[in-house]
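anyone else get weird line breaks when pasting these?? whatever heres mine. first is seq + C-alpha cells for prot A
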Amino acid sequence: MWTETDWPFGADPWGKGKAFRCRADDCGGEVQLYVRAKLGFCNCATGVADDGDLEQMGDLALIGKATPIGAGREITVGPMRGRSRAYRVEGNRNAALSLAFNQRCDMVAATALVGPGAPASLEPAVLAFLNSDRMLKWAEIALGL
C-alpha cells in the first residue's frame, strides 16, 4: 500500500532520501513520507532522547516552518529507539509528523505530511511501515548496520 515516489527536495548536506505515498483508502488518510539516513549526526550516548533532540535532528525544515501540536513521545523502530511529534505546518493545510530514531551515532529522520487534524490517527500506519521488513532492511543498509 506504500508506493515509492521521487524525492521532491533539492540537495543539501544530507543528500537525497526516499519518498513514499500511501493513499487514504489504505492508510486512513493520505500520507506522504520522506525518510533519509543522517550518519554521525546523533548523540552517540543518548540518541534522540527528548523533543529538543527531535527538533534538532529531524527534517521538518524540508517542508517549511512548523509548530508543535503537543509533546512528543518515544517510539521504537526495529532495534532502534527515538521520538515522534506532531506539528502544524504554517501556510499549509497539512499537518506533519516528525520522527527520528537512531542506532549508535547514526539516525534516520522521517517526516510525514498528513491531512489537517490527522497526525495522531495516522502515526500507527507510518510506524508500521517504518517497522516493515522493507524499511528495516533499507535502514540497515543506509546506516551500515
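and prot B, same format (seq, then C-alpha cells)
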Amino acid sequence: MIKKVFAAVALFAVSATFVSCGEDAVPKPKAFLRLDYPVEDYVLYTGKCPFTFAFNSQAIISNKGNCNFTLQYPRMKATIYLTYKPVEGNLEMLLRDAQKLTYEHVIKADAIQELPFVNDMQNVYGMFYQVGGDAATNAQFYATDSTRHFLTGSMYFYARPNYDSLMPAASYIKDDMRNLMETLKWR
C-alpha cells in the first residue's frame, strides 16, 4: 500500500513538473495600430496653370481657382493645400509669408526641420519643412523659380493634432509632398 501511495505521489510530482514547465505569464507590451496604405501611384497634373506636378492617384484634386488646389485624402482625413502666386517684384514678401506661416506652429511644435530643395534642371528652388509634435500641420513647403512663380503647400488633418496617432498617415503624405516638389515644372 505504501508503494502505491508513493507511486501515486511520485506520478503526481512528475506530472506537476511537466505541466508547470511553461514560460511565466508576462503582460504583452503596448503596440501601435498597423495601418496599411496603398502603394503610391502618381499621375501628372497638366492643366492650364503655369506649372505641372505629379500627385498621388489616391488623392482627390480640386482646383479652387487661380491655380490654388486641394489634394484630399479621404481615408486619412487629410488635405494638402497648394497656393500659387506670381512673382511680381514681391519675392521677398512671399518668402517671408511662407516662413511666417511655418513658424506660427512653433508654439505646439517640438521641432521644425528645414530641408532646402534645389532642382537646377527645372529651375525649382525651395524649402521643405517637417514639423514635429502636436502642431496643426506636420509638413509645409514653398517652391519658386525666383523670377515668375511661387507655390506653397501645407498638410492639415481633420482631427485633433496628436503626433503619435497621426504619424503613419503624416509620413505617407509627406512623401507625396516631397514627390510633388521633385516633379514640379514651371511653364
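btw re prot B: The two ends are 102 Å apart (CA to CA). The chain has a mean pLDDT of 87.
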